[in-house]
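Researcher: Structure prediction, please.
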Amino acid sequence: FFTQELVPAIDQLYPTFKDPKRRAITGLSMGGRGAWWLAWRHPELWGAAGSICGGLDIRPFPKNWDLPKVLGAYPSQAQNWDQHTVQELVQQTAYRGQVLLFDCGTSDFFLAVNRTLHNTLLQLKVPHVYTEQPGTHNAAYWGQAIQHHLLFFDQYFQQKKS
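Model: Predicted structure follows.
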């Protein structure tokens, strides 16, 4: 939907930059997972991606958010889960040059999976910006973090102008 319908519809209705170097996607929680998952799979659409407290690996949460209804039981349907996990995607497909940003609160239940992805990216020598700040999985943290993301993407876009 996002890549085949939403982005083309927005491009048709509004004056947009179609160059991926002029586009970014970010999200929080599962939206952060979705933003990274879409950007990693579609570098032709997005040159930068962000995630705030993202569920970048959902496998440690096999009974949460009705995921078994969508993906099947884990681990018996592990392949389905792997296909929808950023951690696995990063390990299985090549990095294609996107600018990557993610952060997580130090009391967030997604902290461990964010740290694991950070370490994986370091091992793979994938450039990225990762930060941890005091906070948990709530609106107070997200409100602070989105300001950092917007500033980061503004600086990214300013560099692309020159």
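Model: DSSP finds seven helices and four strands in the chain.
Researcher: Thanks, that helps.
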